[in-house]
Write a structure and sequence with these properties.
The chain has 155 residues and is an alpha+beta fold. Helices cover 43% and strands 27% of the residues. The protein has helices at 3-7, 26-41, 49-78, 117-122, 145-153, and strands at 14-18, 81-85, 88-93, 99-104, 108-114, 124-131, 139-143. The strands form 2 sheets. A 4-stranded antiparallel beta sheet has the order 1-2-3-4. A 3-stranded antiparallel beta sheet has the order 5-6-7. A hairpin with a 7-residue loop joins β6 (124-131) and β7 (139-143). α2 packs antiparallel against α3 (49-78). It is elongated, with a radius of gyration of 21 Å.
């Protein structure tokens, strides 16, 4: 059961259910590409055992790092919940050690969205929600950041 379904009040409805963008996997993808390139380079090493062993070791190290980084990134994505309900904005991270931030919709003053060129092309961005007296932390790599902003501001 997700954190969001556990804390919803009886009259509260979810307006937007957000998630992290797939771009967070970029480091794992890069490491796995490097592992593939190193494995492909094995064909061109010839019969030189020392060089073949070094390239094979490099491919193994890149592959293992890529899988480890990919798993940790997946765990981060799996344990992050972003939601806008009729009464509040909810942001939760963490699997074992949970960190939650909530803000009542009545307290929201402004919503800032930052998108780089890549963010605009791929559909992700950073969102900062400012409220009276406090602000939510900056939410990075949010998929469809504009839709999140629209869900918050269209009350």
């Amino acid at each position: 059961m997700s954190y969001l379904t556990q804390i919803l009040q009886p009259d509260e409805k979810v307006l937007f259910d957000g998630h992290l963008h797939w771009i967070i996997y970029r480091r794992a993808i890069l490491l796995l590409i490097l592992a593939g390139l190193a494995a492909a380079a094995l064909r061109f090493t010839g019969d030189q055992n020392g060089l073949k062993f070094a390239v094979l070791s490099l491919a193994f190290i890149f592959g293992a790092l890529g899988l480890a980084v990919g798993f940790l990134t997946w765990l981060r994505s799996f344990s992050t919940e972003i939601a806008v309900t009729t009464t509040r904005v909810i942001y939760k991270t963490g699997f074992v050690r949970r960190h939650t931030v909530e803000m009542n919709m009545d307290k929201v003053e402004s919503v800032d969205v930052d998108q780089s060129l890549a963010g605009r092309l791929l559909g992700y961005g950073s969102v900062r929600i400012r409220g009276t007296g406090a602000s939510l932390e900056k939410l990075d790599h949010i998929a469809d950041a504009i839709a999140l902003r629209n869900a918050i501001t269209s009350r």
